[in-house]
Design brief:
By secondary structure, the chain is an alpha+beta fold. It has a single domain, classed as Double-stranded beta-helix (4-Layer Sandwich). It contains seven helices and 14 strands. Strands 1, 2, 3, 5, 12 and 14 form a six-stranded antiparallel β-sheet that branches. A four-stranded antiparallel β-sheet has the order 4-13-6-11. Mean pLDDT is about 90; it is low at about 1-5. Bound molecules: 2-oxoglutaric acid and fe (ii) ion. InterPro entries: AlphaKG_dependent_hydroxylases, TauD-like_sf, TauD/TfdA-like. This is Taurine catabolism dioxygenase TauD, TfdA family. It comes from Paraburkholderia susongensis.
């Protein structure tokens, strides 16, 4: 093995160690293209096993497709409220990853991240009790308006096999589904019961995001990875149709 290759491998290994530390510390990290020389899949194997998504495939293209102009959906240009991925999963994927092929050039389209556990600590005693004790029926359709949906009843913050898992969906709490249809959005039309704990949590999370979320505009060729049992993410609206990311779900043992 040449010295240059040996140096490159050592370099990549220390880069990984640094990013793993950052992931542990702040709940998310961005891997640069140099760390992805052997491919995104090889890089993600450091974190766990890539698992199939709602479509049964290992990857999901976060890319604008026609038909989703009015809904807060990954394949639209619309913003998406604060959520964790796959709250109906038991467990949800431990890590989420977004590999950026081409970021929006319009200055928007940020993936925003905030610490869900810190958000929980910011709540009043009544809501703290609610998130720990009251099961919430999470519901997810694969595509807005589809008939088949997955559901799971579990408290927002639960302990599963000795690990704390945080689940959240602004869409679900306000519109009844992780991927609400246009009809569900119109039905609600801004009428929320201010005493409903789920509506209160959705509103509080949106405000928390305004002040505390880190806006990440993943550069082309980079891979954003975050801890989906701890972090909440959202997306800002954008206008550039060419934005293209590939999403991965990673499960750890
Ligand atoms: O487009 C993004 O930055 C994130 C979209 C999203 O929430 C997802 O694909 O899970
Ligand atoms: Fe998401």
């Amino acid at each position: 093995m040449s010295n240059a290759i040996a140096f490159d491998m050592a370099d990549t290994a220390s880069l990984f160690d640094a990013t793993c530390d950052e992931l542990d510390r702040q709940g998310w990290t961005v891997l640069p293209p140099q760390a992805l020389g052997n491919g995104v899949r090889v890089a993600l194997e450091r974190f766990g096993k890539i698992v199939p998504q709602y479509n049964g495939e290992d990857t999901w293209e976060v890319k604008v497709k026609p038909g989703f102009e009015k809904v807060p959906y990954s394949q639209s240009r619309n913003g998406i409220g604060p959520h964790t991925e796959v709250p109906v999963g038991s467990p949800p994927p431990r890590y989420l990853a977004l590999h950026c092929h081409r970021q929006a050039r319009c200055g928007q389209g940020h993936t925003r991240l905030a610490d869900g556990v810190a958000f929980c600590r910011s709540l009043d005693a009544e809501l703290q009790r609610y998130i720990h004790e009251v099961p919430v029926r999470f519901a997810a359709t694969l595509v807005p308006g589809a008939t088949s949906r997955q559901t799971l009843s579990v408290p927002i913050l639960s302990d599963e096999n000795g690990r704390s898992i945080f689940r959240f969906s602004y869409n679900q709490f306000l519109y009844g589904d992780v991927n609400p249809s246009e009809a569900a959005l119109n039905d609600a039309s801004g009428q929320f019961d201010p005493n409903d704990p789920l509506a209160r949590l959705a509103t509080l999370a949106a405000a928390y995001f305004e002040s505390d979320a880190a806006p990440v505009l993943i550069p082309d060729g980079h891979l954003l990875v975050w801890d989906n049992h701890r972090m909440i993410h959202s997306r800002s609206t954008f206008s550039d149709h060419a934005r293209h990311l590939t999403r991965y779900w990673v499960q750890s043992s």
